[in-house]
Amino acid sequence: MIMITKQQYVEYLICTIGNYTSSNLAEHLDEVSHDVITDYLSSERHTARGLWELVEGLIQDSPEAFMLVDDSVQDKRYSRFIELVKLQYSGTEHGLVRGIGIVNLVHSAGNEKDFYPMDYRIYAPDQDGKTKNEHFSEMIINAVFAKKIKAKRILFDSWYASAENLKLVHRLGLTFFTTLKSNRMVSLSKEGDWIHLNEIEWTSERLQNGVIVKLKEVPFKVQLFKVVATDGDIDWVITNGSDETLTAQAAQEANDVRWQIEELHRGLKQLTGTEKCQCRKGRSQRNHIACCYHAWLSLKVKAKALGKTLYQTKDDLLSDYLRAELATPRIQAFLPA
User: Fold this and answer.
1) What is the structure's pLDDT at 1?
2) What is the pTM of this model?
3) CA 105, CA 70: separation in Å to the nearest integer?
4) How many domains are contained in the chain?
5) Closest C-alpha to 236, from 252, 216, 214
6) Assigned domain for 72 exists
7) Sign of CA dihedral 88, 90, 91, 95
């Protein structure tokens, strides 16, 4: 029996357009059946460790680099029998959706510079009993002690800005930049008079340089910035950094690097089909997702060599086909005699 390899599956994810199913692959790969592909996906064990082995030599690591954490939901709203699927909040949908959650850890050399996923965890509390915050802490600890990452700045959104996470990051000697939800209580005094963020008197000096505040259950003070976007939206950005010259603009610029992880989420879905696997077994879904990371990384490396975006690089795969068809169409426009 002819078997399929990981390389073949990854290359299929790279070159296929729209249809990422095992059935489509079987139809286009000579002498390989649908059953062979589904058996491959259900029997292999690809993990995030394999991703790190590929990425380790590519990252531009330094104390000035960043680590980014965020989660993404692979939409499976029409699936009723796929393992790992559960009802959970999706930032994309701004509500609850049935899907597979993934918590990602990304390494970034900085804004407008290279970034690579270096770890991820499938959010499956029914299988392993772990929360997203537990995945967060495990990945950060592993990055610092096992992977020996030098990056000293870490970015995440308000979902991960719990007191326990802030204390962990601080103990690890990392500087966090994160956002607070608008209902978070802070104190400007030693007495601990807790007030809402909007109750702070935001003088022009404070808008420029921030204000030192205390958070409940956090033993150290943080610097709080009120960042107002052009559309009027407000971001409450905090950091445990000790740089007294840090301004609101600099804090926002650091926090803006977090957008790169959104680029990763979008690219994985649109370019590699992380949401499109229809296999029911959880192991098959895990292996498909692992291969999607490999496919994204392959596109990233090729795009960098060509000086193009990942989307341009994938679109180029259709260029030769389109030119050939336009020159000598196999299906010509019907014209009446």
Assistant:
1) 61
2) 0.94
3) 7
4) 1
5) 252
6) no
7) negative
